[in-house]
Input
Amino acid sequence: MKRKLIIVRGGGDLATGVIHRLWSAGFPVTILEASHPTAIRRQVAYSEAVYEGSATVEEVRAVRCENPESIRTVLEAGEIPLLVDPKGAYIPFLNPGVVVDAIIAKRNLGTNRSMAPLTIGLGPGFVAGEDVDFVIETMRGHNLGRIIRRGSAAPNTGVPGVIGGYGAERVLHAPGEGVLISCHGIGDYVLRGERIAEIRGKEKSFPVEAGISGLIRGLIRDGFWVSKGMKIADIDPRREEYENCFTISDKARCIAGSVLELVCRYDGGNRER
Output
């Protein structure tokens, strides 16, 4: 607790990679999440603590707190506190040294440089030197993880990164509005055209079928109300990569390393922008 608190807005899979790295480096971290997070890579997302009360990723546990006063107790127990606070209302009370916006909303949902001495935005939607101090590139490719000191990250293309030779085909979107009822779980191997879930709408149901054969890498929570076009599942064609369904991704680790670099530089007293 001698170090200033780091707040990470968001607890999805990329945010979780950042949170896990910062915690592993000895920094006190607190997560601020939405009341109904929509992560599909739920096995590696601390946002699941919103629903389950706690979530463990690679042996590091996050615990939901009902108020900011209980944060210290959770930190001293060697765990990561999570608060439901989508608007960041608790940030002034918590007085962090660093705020990382890892919501990955492709737009800024309110993060600004007045929130902490050091502010970092992940991906598009932020301008380094204006609404945050630094931006981290999140698009796969040569610049993934690049620290941007002036300007913005590459705009969102809407096209998923290629894994095992597949891009858009591996991601599934809701064919209609309704409640998702799954018939498979994360880590299951499915064949192309196989039904993995059903969306039960008010007037009709919509089958959700695998676009390719592979492992279900991500799947939104069973019983979740989804809107038409919403991203609901992710299939990895590499059958031999089963363990990847339950560990932090290479992309998340790369981004996390860049965040840690900035935090360490600030923590060392170098405040030059």
